Amino acid sequence: MRLIGSQEHEQEWRSNIHTLGPFCLLLWDYPFDNKSTEPGTMFYHGANLSDESISVFKKDCLQEEDKTKRSFPAFTSCSRNRQIAELYGNVLFIMTVKYAFTVDITTFSQYPDEEEELLSPGVCFTVERVESNGSKYMIHLNLIQQYSQANRPEINDHPPNNHLTFDNDNRLSRLGFGDHLNRIAAVLNDNDDDYINNYLSTVDDLTLDFNLLGCTLSDGDPDRFRDGSDKDW
Which residues form the signal peptide (predicted)? Predict the structure, then answer.
């Protein structure tokens, strides 16, 4: 997924756009977990950040009204156990759920003792305050599940053609994937150039060249955070 937006690998990811889109849709609409996380739940994440990156968080927390909403550009692992997260990095993110969808992956993790929770891409947050004890920064975030519904009807209402359909007897349909499969079929069967170009344009807008939690690409620019304008996906 980190190849998206890379000029070096542009042909590679663009050539897979018709399978990448449905794959992203399945991840986004994860059908087995549609319940939001209990408000007030606390998550923790340790990371190594540069002084320049930390300064961005400091600037955000000075806003008293209409705080900037930023979003996580990738699946982000965190822990319910603060002591574990404190073992890593020079920054501890302390996240309070206001309204968000997360997944408890403790039973699937190779390290179940870490009490691992997974944040989905696009989960938004605001920076409430930044503290320091001399050796580590504590950055307090409020998690807010926000995204625009503007583009969803275009996918939901776009009927699949006869080239690819999924009937009700399909095994995945019986497992609850029926609606998701039909929407994927719509994307796979869509050969309209304008629609495809619009899709490519959307992907361009979501170029991930910097991860707020400390994972930087080679050409990362700390001024190009994903903010509220990217929360559609």
Answer: none
pTM of the model: 0.59
Radius of gyration over every alpha carbon of the chain, rounded to an integer in angstroms: 19
Sign of CA dihedral 47, 121, 208, 130: negative
Domains along the sequence of the chain with CATH: 42-147 (3.90.176.10)
* Vertex 95 angle, CA 48 and 207, to 5°: 60
DSSP structural state of residue 80: S
pLDDT tens digits for range 173-192: 443 444 544 544 554 454 44
User: How distant is the alpha carbon of residue 52 from its chain centre?
Assistant: 23
- For residues 202 and 205, what is the distance between their CA atoms, to the nearest angstrom? 5
Residues 68, 126: Cα–Cα separation, whole Å: 6
Mean pLDDT of 34-39: 79
Q: Which amino acid belongs to residue 230?
A: D
Mean pLDDT of 59-72: 86
Strands 70-71 and 124-132: antiparallel
* Strands lying side by side in the sheet with 42-47: 70-71, 124-132, 137-144, 91-99, 42-47, 76-79, 116-119, 102-104
